[in-house]
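Help! Submission page says 'invalid entity' but I think these are all valid:
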Amino acid sequence: MKKWWHKWLILPSELKRLGVIGLNQRNGTWLLPNNNRKFYRKVDDKLVTKLLAEKMDLAVPKLFHVFSTQKNVMDLEEILAPFDSFVMKPSRGSGGRGVLVIKKRRGNKFIKASGMSMTIQEVQQHATEILGGLFSLGGSRDVAMVEACINCHPELTKISYQGAPDVRVIMLHGYPVMAMLRVATRQSDGRANLHQGAIGIGIDLATGKSIHAIHHGNSVDTHPDLDTNLINITVPQWDTVLEMATKGYEMTGLGYLGADLIVDDTVGPVVIELNARPGLAIQLANATGLRLRFEKAQAQAKAHPNLGWEERLAFSVKAFGRQKSAQ
Amino acid sequence: MFKKIFSLSGLVGLLIIVSAAGIIYKNRALGVPLLPDENREMWLVEARVSYLAKEKPVKVTLALHGDGEKLSVEGQQISLGYGFSKAEENGHPVGIWSARAPKGRQLLYYRAVIDESQLNYEFPLARNEQAPVVPQVADMTEEGQTLTGGSRAMALSIIHKEARQRSADDPTYVNRIQELIAEDSDNEAYLLLKRYYEKKYEKDWKRELVIDLLRQAGVASKGSIGVRLIEGNGTREAIKLIQYFDSAEQVWRIVLPHGGSLDNILVWSRSSSLLEVNSGGEQSLVSFTALKERAPTEIADRMAKAPWWVATISALPASERAPFRYAALIPLGVLAVVLLRNLVGLATLGTFMPVLLSLAFLELPLVAAMIMLSSMLFGGLVFRAVLSKFNLLVVPRVAACVVIVTLFMMAVSLISYKLGAVDGLRVTVFPMIVLAWTIERMSLIWDEEGAASALYQIMGSLIAAFAAYGVMKIEVLQYWVEFFPEVLLILLAIILVIGRYTGYRLLELVRFKNAAQMEV
């Protein structure tokens, strides 16, 4: 029930009743006790993540090349000659920084997702910047990965203003507990970060259908730039998405984990990155608190410690899904 | 049992018990009061003599404050082997250190405890002191070997006459002369004198000029030595003062050569020479440290003599203690930041950057600090925007920013000095490397998340810096940290407890306000 103070804030007692968790609780109760520091490298370095995923037979964007030395960058033209489209990104960048998406070529020029063109020198400069650590906050050296460009499923691109929408699944002890689709807006500039103005859309774990959407923390039903409907959209190949996310636990050993996937038009869902510190806005996107689900997953993990991914997934769909699965 | 102590609550309990035990012991056994004495305005003034000994018999004579309550030759081996005696030289108290053959850099300390309410700038004649006789200015020619000697005497008498006409008595005469110097008049006679005295006495020229002009008027005068009673990081030089004899009132009066208020200035000695070292030493130097003594003298003394683990920083010489007083405040500022970040949920640029800023605020008047900080941030951001055109790598880019911030700081100092604000000279207290990183982070956030986000975060940092400053400024806390450093253990216990707090942050209540529409 809406009270007058809800215009400005919500009382702690109400939040508690709704099972919404705050950052202190996320860190102190769910993140720190469950995530061993030594596993962080597996998710913070995208190159390591990619190799691990390939080992687990999880689909990832195909790796074309890794630029690790400046000398290597000099031969960039030759190395990238076979590829018309590609994505270049820092292995340890965060928040989508330093990601360069080349959609096609026109003569000597590289055409970016936004339609702007770049010369080979500019692409080389970008690689050099990545190597020098321009996109890592501490300024430590990095390597530049070049991988295949993903063609996002048209069902999803039609609700995003440039930029490919990605699906985030949050897991505790390998049990998917909540999922969200993130779509870009004009304001978020093609990126899928909610605090930069992207839209978060809560997804029902059982059906893959969108149930609720938020923009800047407020509920919305339509995309502010495209005016398309955001509710009751189905994420294609949802079962595969969930399956791949769930296997992320076996891959990393991290108890509190977020998996980001994009559904490709031809190869289906691919793992983009894994995240050891996924944020809390997913609760608003789903209009559901995380705490009760976490507690259920934790109890289940304690009672049955060695379940495989199929059993965990089945439990999650049953416990956290809104509607019965279509099958 | 063992496990219990090592659980968090056990540790917190242990910290509180140890801390409380220390406080109770000091309070009961040593009589250290739990609250600072608000009415007392006592200062511990420490003179530190430093010189280079040449392995010869050495005699160091330092002019002393006559009422020094406490006296100590500090620092084990440095003062070992020195004999110390107090004497009187030309009617002024002096301390004399002597040793047979010391070697290397030597440090000697003398401390006096001064009551601020007893500061005095008028000294009547002592019982057997004669009113001073003024030597005539005519004997100028004796030293007037240069051709300017004659014209100087002329200029002195012109200035003297002008000032004389516009004054009623000795104090107003002195005022006229000080005004003349303060406004740096373009009077021809004055300019001539200025050139002459600047050349001859360098930075002491104002004092010498005033003394000669007083002599011209038949007023007896000489130099004396003052110390400014201001707390701060680091030591200070003595201030050169003038005393002249007001024959109407029959008192010696103290003034600053260039005029101005004597507030906070202690007349350390009425002798005109502060330090004499005989041929056994060279490169001698006196510096002063003033500290507000927050506890009664005898208790502070008792603390200093207690075992080191009780005395802690009280056992250090004042010049070492002053920076420690600041250092010990840092945990207070850190606690403020922890509260703001984990309980309020304020976002700051760099975790403990606000604490470093607040340390700078402690050294400067708040408004001046704010103006300087924001101008430095603004300048840095503009420069950073220019730099971003060149696509520099991170470390060189931040390094370039450090250089620019340094240059900018020099400019701010210079401008504020020209405008007459001395505070500008102390911008060096700002942590430059931290500022450069702040600028870097801010501009990154500006690029990626927009100006609103960058300003929001810098505002958060400033609010946190203010809060940390506010906490560090509380007198009672400063007193506790100095005399009961074990309260830091309680602070540690509080921080540990907050480390386990898993409730909501204040700002999350706003962030999640739309959760009100959720279903359970």
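Support: the input was valid. A stray whitespace character was the problem, and the output above is from the cleaned input. Chain B touches chain A at residues 342, 345, 391, 393-395, 398, 441, 444, 448-449, 453, 499-505, 508-520 (CB under 8 Å).
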